Amino acid sequence: MSSEGGPDRRSRGRQELTVLGFAVALFCAFLGVYGGRLLSLPWWGQALFIAGAVGAFFGAVAVMTTGGSGVWAKVKIVLAQVVGVVKWSWPGIVGAAVVISGVVLVPPLVTANGECGKPVDLRVVTDAENVAPLAAAAQRYVTEKSEHGCRRVTVDVAGDAPTDEVKNGFARGWTSPGIDLNDGDCTSLPARATLLGSQPDVWIPADRTVAEGVRQYSEGGGTCSAKQNPLRAKADLDIGGSVGTSPVVVGVFGDADRQDLAGDQGRQSLTALLHVFSADQVLNSVARPSPDTSDSALLATPVLHQALRSGWAGGDREPVEKILDQSRISAGDAASMLCAFRDDDAAGKNPPGDVAVIVPEDLLARYDHGDVLGTGCRSGPPSQKWRLFPYYTADLPALDHPFVHVRWPGEDTARRDEAVAAFRKWLDGGELAREGLRTVSGKLAAGNGVVRSLRDGHVVPDAMPPHHLRGDAGCVGSLQEVKDCYADARPAYPLSLLVDVSGSMANPVTKGGPRLGRAQDLALRIVGDVRPTAPTSLFLFSAVTRPETGPIASSGNEATRPDVQAAIQRAVTNGRDLALTTAIEQAAGRLHRGKQTLVVLTDGQAAATNRDGAAQARGLAGRLRADKPGLRLLIVPTGPGDCGAEPVASIAATFGPGSCIGRPQAAVEDLVSLVMADVFWG
Prior knowledge:
Structural class: alpha/beta
Strand content: 5-15%
Number of helices: 20
Strand order of the largest sheet: 2-1-3-10-4
Helix content: 40-55%
Number of strands: 15
């Protein structure tokens, strides 16, 4: 009896096992495709994977349950059994196909009816001068990739911090300066940490020189894992190719637009160009954004030093740097500089016609074209007298904007990698040409209408090929060499900060966060821009925290600078106001004699706290001139008050013109640029 039903039962058992194996294999294949890295494969790749997984399982089951000898004999039996299984199991196969089709096709249909899935959120950082064009391109990308009214991806473009902050951010979990970490202990965590923003997936700096310098610094850090210490988790920076180039140009206003004086556009040196403009008394000075916050200005500085020493200043780089810092035009970056031009134009002012500005070509073209340059900046083309005309040289840098894929430990997924790769591929199609960038080889693309519009009666070269940085030997080999030469050209005068921490500093600025937060941001940037060897000290003042007890932190070298930055970040409001004249006198009493600057960051004070403030200010000024003749006082209001509010106005008046920089509504980078020019040369 057992012999009569045995083979049939064994056959049915094999069939049942095969069907079960088919179901398990199909389920595992589905999870593998839609839950892991295989999601990035095209549809035919996913289908082949599923077919391969199912076929492999069929083969394994058949081989294990089939008698006979020899591989080919088993293969024939396997094929025969597969055909047999298909004959009696086709309803199940059809049912499985329907289920899979429903899983794959139904969600898009549901999405089309108003329920959207969660898009991939890409976070992109770039230099401040490239935010507007990249944001415009990213908006087009998001629109093109949307389906049925739903976004598949979002791209958030933000401006990065100064290079020193960026390199530390990539090496330390994207945290801001001053984070107190023990480099020898992976388990140490600070009591408080502030991020530079969301950790980026993509970084597009101004130039490969910047990208390579930052990566070299980041890779030289410690080896703590993200699990041990998330604040010391290093980013993996995969530096790709350029997404577009832009030469740095000399921009002049209409009164100085003398093409008859220029040589062959794009082939002459900056030295030759400036020489003829100066000799013919067309230009008297050159302005550039702050190299502390503008990478294009930093990379152009070695060439500027070389050119201006030839006839303008002579000798060392320090007098050249003084000329550049004391220009009538000062801004944190080129976009801010051009935005200020638009404001002056709207106010009916006249341009400084004898000043040349050093800016990237694409930004100058966007300015003339009337395009968006930044948040809060006016748009629209300038009046004819405020229009800028570009002059090209062979040695000013050509920015190549490399695409850097940033991977953070624990954040790197297949879906995010695919989204980054897709965005990169889209940019490689020349999309940034519409925003003013040239091709990777430096050619002027047909679709670059922004730059082509500059050809209205002016010479614009068809090609400006990228090249290595040029300038003095020892100043252009790497990012660090560029920064060192720039820093060495500025004096190492002592700097002290006196920061208001009274209760009113917890109140918000007219637009933005608390006044203390703005003061901390300013203080961090100022400390970061001082030469590392310059003595630096920090005082806090309120009725509770008095400067007479001494500085909260001090530094005299690069190793101890983070101590000052950490103390700035730890500052909190406490107590009522301490009279401003009292706070200044107490802090000054703790300083040594000699040339130095005391920067006061405050939101101002009520008259009741400074009774007879004018008389107190005169007395204070007299005592400090006698005791500290080399001391320079500089008050920087954090807002909402300005230099015209008392008691700041009376104090500034007694210490002389320029003792207060009263632009509380200005961008932090622009204020810092003004402060540092005063610190070094005021």
